[in-house]
Amino acid sequence: MARARGRRLLGPAHGAYTGGHAPLAEAPGDAQGLGLRAPARCRGRKRFGQNFLVREDLAQRIVDQCHLSPDDVAIEIGPGAGALTPLLASRVHRLLAVEKDAGLAALLREQLAEIAQVEVVEADFLTLDLVERASAEGVRRWVVVGNIPYNITTPILERLFAQRAVVKSAVLLVQREYAARLGAAAGTPEYGALTLFARYHALLEPLLTVRASAFWPRPQVDSMLVRLFMREQPPLEVPDEALLFRIIRGSFQMRRKQLLNTLEATLALPKPKIERLCRHARVDAQRRGETLTLEEFARLARAAADYGEHAGGPHPCCTPPCGPRR
Residue 126, annotated ligand binder? Predict the structure, then answer.
């Protein structure tokens, strides 16, 4: 599949939102027909994965789906030229618009100068310490909204999950295929380490499909808006999260092989010990990892920890990221 760029948001030429109600599936095929034009200083930068939303009605519907409240303090990842920003600001107590592109950040400050509750932060979201910022500003938990580049979706999720103690929820526009992987069922082609990584940290709610024709320049694939409700506590207990995700990754790197073989390679143990470990976990060693649920992987991790049978040093759950490998 051709690699798609991320999408960014382009404000309408005159700053007014119509709040139209056309179904997303019926989006018009060409931005030229919409009567929208880019601000003169907006140029999509390939290195930042910039594509701009040119559907005013979609901006309104995306914000509606965020279900924001006047008490929320929100962070917008990559506001671009600000198509969502004033709409978001009107629904929350305060909004941090985090923009990496210096030119767009300057444009946003100029355009949003009269909206007191918006702060434009010129920064890379991947380096932003949400815990430190929350402490400094007296925020208990952020609400995050983002129309994010496809090529950094997994790093953004890693960042959000790592700081989920101060993140209530995230509404993100991602590649539709990626969204399918996030919500996949065991045994399906889309099911993988990314699915389980996300499921361990959050509850997923698919919201809207957004056609490629809604962006300029037009990406090669459709997008989907999803909401992630961050779990304050994991859904199950494991003594060693790094071990759990090492077992999961190893199983999906060799997804067509039986657990007997994948665990032998991942844990560096002989097959007789793997067989005993699987019996202890009540998981058939002849099964393939791609058929196991999160609970079954957790039982394997607990059994490995109980037996003290996990060779190797620390293994961060997503280094390298678990998303691209299935």
Answer: no
Residue 313 labeled ligand binder: no
> CA 257 → CA 152, 193, 243, 278, 289, distances in Å?
29, 15, 19, 15, 8
Q: In what order do the strands lie in the sheet with 52-53?
A: 8-9, 52-53, 215-216
Q: Are residues 218 and 250 in the same domain?
A: no
78 belongs to an annotated ligand binding site: yes
Residue 99 among known ligand-binding residues: yes
Measured in degrees and rounded to the nearest 5, phi and psi for residue 146 equal -160, 135
Whether 124 has a binding-site annotation, put simply, is yes
**For residue 201, what are the domain limits?**
8-230
Q: Residue 140 domain-assigned? A: yes
Flag whether pLDDT at 179 surpasses 90.
yes
Q: Is 146 exposed, middle or buried (0-12, 13-18, 19+ CB in 10 A)?
A: buried
Tell whether 309 is in a known binding site: no
| Shared domain check, 146 and 282 | no
Question: Would you state the structure tokens that stand for residue 152, as one six-digit string?
Answer: 């950094």
Q: What is the pLDDT of residues 31-63, one digit of tens each?
A: 333 333 444 444 544 444 557 787 889 999 999
How many domains does one find in the chain? Answer: 2
Return the CATH number at 87. Answer: 3.40.50.150
pLDDT digits (tens, 9 = 90+) for 267-300: 999 999 999 999 999 999 999 999 999 999 999 9
CATH number, domain of 248, equals 1.10.8.100
